Amino acid sequence: MLSLAAAVSLPFALPDGRMFPQRSMIIYLAFCLIVATLVVQGLTLPWLIRSLGLSEPLDMKDEEQEAQRVLLREALVPLDRKRSKDRDQSAMFGKLIANCQQRLDAMPVEREERMRGLVDQTRRSNAILAVLQVERVALIRLLD
User: Of 27, 112, 113, 126, which is the most buried if we count CB atoms within 10 A?
Assistant: First the structure.
């Protein structure tokens, strides 16, 4: 942008009265340089980041999913205990357990499949939406 401002600030005429030679060409070239720089860098930068391995590694995603998997398994244990102790609320605890189990089942199992892109994202999204729907129904029931 600074180069375009410098090009536009060139005078129309020289001190002796002649027109500044090639002023319009200088402005045009500065504009083209800016546009080409933005377009080329903007379109190639994501590819370059991925190819150099500067983006978030898949290991972090795998670790996050494994942590979510462990948290869901850990949540199932106390819910199951509470369901067996409190017979009056066993249906509610059963639904919460089913909800946690559905969330656990919706998580991709095999890392290699996901890396190869064989996991059907539409099915996964639909499963996640179904889990969220069950959670919402359970929450509304609890509020009532």
Answer: 27
